[in-house]
Amino acid sequence: MQETAVRFAICDDDKVYAEKMKALILQTFQLPQPVECVIYLNQEQILKYYHEDKIDIIFMDIEFGDVIGFQVARRLSMQDSQLAVVYMTNYEHYITEAFVCRPLGFIRKSHAEDDLQIAGQEIRRFIGQKYSRFVFGGGTAVVEVPLYKVYAVEIYGHDMVILLADENIRVRDKLMRVEDELEAHDFVKISRGRMVHLKYVTAIEGKTVRLHENYEFAVSADKISMLKSRWLAYKMLH
């Protein structure tokens, strides 16, 4: 499986400053994964290409051209409930207002290098969580998968099937071996042989749970209440 790049975006109508910030970000974040950084000079670009460009973290200028960066962040959060944003500004009085969409940090443009070091700890924590990899299978027949890509895991006979957006992976494994660790990463057991990732749940209707990519599963009667409770708690935190 090809290594996925961590993708930063800079939203700033000042192209010269944006290029300087891009260089600083690439210099600061030396990660196990490849790192890429793109620049958007106006809100139309970021709103149009955010999903297509698969952005992980946005550095958003609060005074972003003719609009306020907070407003753009709110619009993006309607597309992605797990939007990760770091706000940038020349004006320190915005610090008290910069809590829209639960930002990872705040950068004063005149102190960008110092402030990026401070925000860097939270940014690295977010990236580490998002790109944590999990080993399924055993012995020589193992597969390592980034957990953020996994929609659900289910057991068929002696095999485990790992459901992703664009493929399913089959390995020899047991749910009981991985259950506790997956639960710690926001997976919930909905039946004897299946767990779903709360990140991708879109609806719970009756005894059915729906996920993105048209995945739909039956939920055991004794798991419904727990699933609803976990999903509600997850949405409040994300």
3D structure, described in words:
With 238 residues, the chain is of the alpha/beta class. 31% of the residues lie in helices and 33% in strands. It has helices at residues 15-28, 43-49, 69-79, 112-130, 175-183, 224-237; strands at residues 6-11, 35-40, 57-61, 63-64, 67-68, 85-89, 105-108, 133-138, 141-146, 152-156, 159-163, 168-172, 187-191, 194-197, 201-205, 208-211, 216-218. The strands form five sheets. A five-stranded parallel sheet has the order 2-1-3-6-7, with helices on both faces. A five-stranded antiparallel sheet has the order 12-11-10-14-13, sandwiched between helices. Strands 15-16-17 form a three-stranded antiparallel sheet, with no helix packed on it. Strand 15 and strand 16 form a beta hairpin. Helix 1 (15-28) packs across helix 4 (112-130). The chain is elongated and about 60 Å long. The model has no long low-confidence stretch (mean pLDDT 90).
The overall pLDDT, averaged over residues, is: 90
Which consecutive residue ranges, at least 5 long each, have pLDDT under 50? none
- Helical content, roughly? 25-40%
Element order, helices and strands?
EHEHEEEHEEHEEEEEHEEEEEH
**Count the strands?**
17
Shape assignment = elongated
Q: Main sheet?
A: 5 strands, parallel
The share of residues in extended strands comes to: 25-35%
Gyration radius, in Å = 20 Å
State the end-to-end distance.
28 Å
Q: Label the structural class.
A: alpha/beta
Number of helices: 6
Strand order of the largest sheet: 2-1-3-6-7
